[in-house]
Known about the structure:
Blueprint lengths: L1 E6 L4 E7 L5 E6 L10 H14 L21 E5 L3 H4 L7 E5 L6 H11 L11 E6 L5 E6 L6 E3 L4 E10 L2 E8 L3 E3 L4 E3 L2 H4 L1 H5 L3 E5 L7 H18 L3 E5 L1
Parallel strand pairs: 13-14
Antiparallel strand pairs: 1-2, 2-3, 4-5, 6-7, 8-9, 9-10, 11-12
Helix pairs in contact: 1-3, 3-6
Amino acid sequence: MAFNAQYKELGKTVIGKVNLDGSVTTTSFPPQLSPETQTVKEAIYEAVYRCRNFTSKICNICELTGKSYGNADPIYTRKLDGANIISPHHCYGSIQYHTDNEKYFVDANILFECEMNLIQYHNLQDVKLKFQRSNGDINEGHIKPDTPITFWDYKDCLAIKLFFSENDEIFEKTISFHDYKSSTLDKEISGLISLNKEFFDSLQLNITVKSGSNMFVHERVNWKARMKELLDKSGLKYSFINE
């Protein structure tokens, strides 16, 4: 759930999100310009939320720290891992940063992974799998490199995006790993595991868990517990590899 609060005397809007655990994530828009009172952790929270919802940037600001730099200092823009697969918008997941603070990008990716219930780093990459379309046809799709495993909220399950071609056009479709009943079509839809049994019988999903600076330990613990629950439900064999 998101909310907006107008603060005219400050000339800004405060945008917030109520998390599943009841905590509140807030971000200022325009971005907070008081690095003296803002921690790096708070800056990363703001940056990760803002880059998923807004396209505006302020020149010479490192969003990973909130610090302002001069015109001669190099400010770069980089996308969070997997953001280009989640949304085709060229600004989605983009964070601008100063090279002095590039080390915090791993922490931003950790928060992105935890907030979005993703599995960013795994070995189910650059493979072709059969999947069932809504009309019942079985097609072959391609999982692109850097494609994250995502949480399909309306089915409460894990899924992944596949790309396929038809009539010289490229299409994409997000597919659940296990079978599910389609409420709109009123029929059973086969998941990836059912249609690619031999492949998944021999696959152990290796999930790389990055630690960064450990500023998001609480978020990581909650993420891992949730992923275990969803992975067990999916029927995938898996292991976590700490890095």
